[in-house]
């Protein structure tokens, strides 16, 4: 083709976004941001290795005292061969199918306090996937492509719930309506809950002593940490009083709101427990706390007969233990387990999650600030749908968080194992056994081809990788194979028509399985360094006016 014609075409046609055209997964996983050391020849860590190192470091606060992570390094080809052909029963075997992997060594040291100082532990070796330009990788002799996941920044809103992907756990916050009496009239309030302790899923009717099942609400967790009065004072700015019905005459109705139970009033001695708040201090947040109080008290009325214990943390922790482990567990065991659980819950909010939330203008420093923010600033998401759920703006294309999910899970399980035995004095060999249990050679690649929808086999005969390979994106709720059958396009509110699809998605390159334009990324989309989608100013007014026309 004539050079002059090529130049005219280039001047007329806007160039593709290079990161999208070449494959976002290659840059996010194999990119090397900076050398480790002062010399130019110092060894380099790619983005995947740096991500895994940060996952270990943010969890290190839950390690036993003396256990330290020293760093990681990429192994040589000879070391790689020695590990994948490890001798077993006097034989060396290996999978000869093509695998695009490299070996990484993770080093730890442990000071057991015997005066010898830190001692290096046996290193753990983990295989990580090698990604080629175009997001291509080879596993088990087949070629796969890694597609970026279009994820919300910080938190996700879906079906009147809020999902926060902590690194140590993934919590979905929901709501349930509950009623109580205020000044003699019935009021209904939202009680926000989440299944924080996964052991609750194992409880059956036989584990409950003739009571109904209730969820673990956030007000309950506040009471477990601070007690009732301190929670109202510190977080709600309210001076609550826990009084007996016979003492209500000391609180004039003109100045105070009187809260009572709708369930136990006149039926059980716990029905005499009332909460009193000054009217000028009552807010929607204090109403949620009151709702959470009676949500629990009405289910465990026998625990609220003696009013001197109602304010203390011990009562609320015992009840939480019964909800998690069953009503017939010994109280001492319940207290020990819940104390360990609360220590872990206080450390749920790690530095990586705080950074993600800060990008969404949620600046919190601990888990309690986040719960308060959810119950106040984000409470509207629990009862109404807005554009945040359907829009493709305000999101980012991410890869590492999903591809390295098994590594993150392994480190989280490791810390939970340590937290479950906080009083134990660990030996070096026991620490090595724990590391060996969770950090295995195939930890990161064993489930990639079966549980990860961001990986798909390459089945494209053409020579243009943009059309069927690098422009493919995966919606956040479809990234895990187990979630693909849960919802269809018709009943999914996040798939409603939105004007942002015209700029971010594609309308001429749609697969039959997803004809809504959201499964392909536009080739001219502007991206930040971390994959954040940036709106174009030249079409902002047109898209906003279009959205006003189609908005429900």
**Helix/strand/pairing category:** alpha+beta
| Rg measurement, Å | 28 Å
- Estimated helix fraction: 25-40%
Number of separate structural domains: 2
Strands, count? 21
The amount of beta strand, in percent, is: 15-25%
Per DSSP, the total helix count is 20
Shape descriptor reads globular
Q: Kindly report how far apart the N and C termini lie.
A: 50 Å
Mean pLDDT: 89
Low-confidence stretches: none
Give a short account of the largest sheet: 7 strands, antiparallel
Task: Outline the fold blueprint.
Layout: H1 3-12, H2 18-22, H3 24-30, H4 47-59, E1 67-74, H5 77-84, E2 87-88, E3 91-92, E4 101-110, E5 119-120, E6 124-129, E7 136-139, E8 142-146, E9 149-152, E10 156-158, E11 161-165, E12 170-182, E13 185-193, H6 218-226, H7 228-236, E14 241-244, E15 256-260, E16 273-278, H8 284-297, H9 313-325, H10 331-346, H11 351-359, H12 367-376, H13 387-390, E17 395-398, H14 400-403, H15 405-419, H16 428-438, H17 448-451, E18 455-457, H18 465-470, E19 474-475, H19 501-504, E20 526-527, E21 533-534, H20 540-550
Helix pairs in contact: 4-15, 6-7, 6-9, 9-10
Sum this structure up briefly.
The chain is of the alpha+beta class and 552 residues long.
Descriptive overview:
- This protein has 552 residues and is an alpha+beta fold.
- It has two domains: 18-151 and 389-482, no CATH class; 161-381, no CATH class.
- Strands 10, 11, 12, 13, 14, 15 and 16 form a seven-stranded antiparallel beta sheet that branches.
- The longest helix is centred in the middle third of the chain and has 16 residues, at 331-346.
- It is globular.
- The model has no long low-confidence stretch (mean pLDDT 89).
């Amino acid at each position: 083709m004539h050079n002059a014609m090529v130049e005219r075409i280039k001047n007329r046609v806007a160039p593709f976004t290079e990161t999208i055209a070449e494959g976002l997964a290659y840059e996010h996983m194999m990119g090397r941001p900076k050398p480790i050391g002062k010399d130019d020849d110092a060894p380099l860590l790619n983005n995947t290795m740096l991500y895994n190192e940060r996952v270990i470091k943010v969890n290190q606060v839950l390690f036993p005292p003396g256990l330290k992570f020293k760093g990681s390094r990429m192994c040589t080809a000879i070391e790689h061969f020695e590990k994948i052909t490890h001798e077993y029963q006097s034989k060396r075997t290996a999978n000869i199918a093509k695998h695009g992997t490299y070996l990484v060594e993770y080093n730890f040291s442990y000071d057991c306090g015997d005066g010898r100082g830190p001692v290096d532990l046996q290193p753990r070796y983990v295989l990580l996937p090698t990604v080629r330009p175009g997001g291509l990788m080879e596993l088990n002799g087949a070629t796969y492509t890694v597609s970026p996941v279009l994820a919300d920044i910080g938190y996700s809103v879906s079906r009147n719930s809020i999902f926060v992907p902590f690194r140590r756990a993934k919590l979905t916050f929901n709501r349930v309506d509950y009623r109580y009496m205020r000044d003699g009239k019935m009021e209904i309030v939202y009680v926000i809950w989440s299944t924080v302790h996964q052991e609750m899923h194992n409880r059956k009717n036989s584990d409950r002593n003739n009571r109904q099942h209730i969820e673990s609400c956030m007000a309950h967790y506040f009471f477990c940490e601070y007690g009732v009065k301190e929670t109202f004072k510190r977080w709600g700015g309210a001076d609550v009083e826990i009084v007996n019905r016979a003492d209500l005459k000391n609180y004039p109705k003109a100045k105070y709101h009187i809260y009572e139970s709708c369930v136990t009033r006149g039926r059980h001695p716990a029905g005499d427990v009332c909460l009193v708040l000054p009217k000028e201090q009552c807010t929607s947040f204090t109403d949620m706390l009151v709702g959470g109080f009676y949500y629990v008290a009405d289910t465990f009325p026998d625990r609220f007969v003696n009013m001197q214990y109602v304010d203390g943390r011990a009562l609320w922790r015992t009840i939480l233990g019964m909800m998690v482990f069953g009503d017939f567990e010994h109280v001492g065991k319940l207290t020990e387990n819940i104390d360990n659980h609360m220590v872990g819950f206080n450390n749920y909010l790690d530095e990586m999650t705080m950074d993600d939330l800060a990008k969404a203008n949620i600046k919190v420093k601990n888990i309690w600030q986040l719960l308060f923010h959810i119950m106040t600033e984000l409470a509207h998401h629990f009862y109404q749908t807005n554009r945040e759920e359907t829009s493709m703006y305000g999101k980012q294309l991410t890869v590492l968080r999903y591809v390295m999910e098994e590594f993150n899970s392994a480190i989280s399980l490791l810390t939970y194992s340590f937290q479950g035995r906080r009083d134990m004095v660990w030996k070096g060999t026991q620490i090595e056994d724990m590391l060996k249990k969770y950090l295995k050679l195939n930890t990161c690649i064993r489930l990639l081809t079966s549980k990860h929808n961001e990986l798909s086999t390459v089945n494209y005969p053409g020579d243009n990788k943009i059309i069927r390979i690098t422009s493919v994106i995966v919606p956040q709720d479809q990234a895990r194979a187990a979630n693909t059958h849960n919802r269809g396009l018709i009943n999914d509110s996040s798939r409603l028509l939105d004007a942002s699809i015209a700029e971010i998605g594609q309308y001429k390159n749609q697969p039959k399985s997803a004809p809504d334009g959201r499964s392909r990324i536009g080739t001219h989309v502007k991206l930040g360094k971390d994959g954040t989608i940036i709106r174009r100013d030249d079409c902002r007014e047109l898209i906003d006016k279009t959205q006003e026309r189609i908005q429900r």
